[in-house]
Amino acid sequence: MAKRVKLQLEYIFRSSPTILFQFLTMPACLVRWFCDEADEQDDFFYFVWNGSVQAAEIIDFIEEERLRLRWEDAEPDEYLEYKIYKSPITDETVMEITDFCDDNEIQDQTKLWDSTIKNLKNAMGS
Question: Taking the domain 4-124, which CATH number applies?
Fold first, then answer.
């Protein structure tokens, strides 16, 4: 059986943390790059891909800085986290993503995130 590992990725954006955070948290923005449908109710996001709904509990939310979600079927210590900050050196907006996957899926998961972030940048016009 494959071992679960923490995957940490970093992406640079030419936009403000405010705009980037909106694209991570507003359903109208999420459908432009992340999923087919999105809804937020109480402390949950509901994402739809190909007719299948996945729920994610919001476990940490700091406006314009961090969003941490736990998928309803995830292991207790696993989560998806977006951390956003301005680089003190380049003044660019940096987003760090923490995700979890099987150790034999690191390359595929990284490619999936690279493609997803490319879609995000296109949706933002960045």
Answer: 3.30.530.20
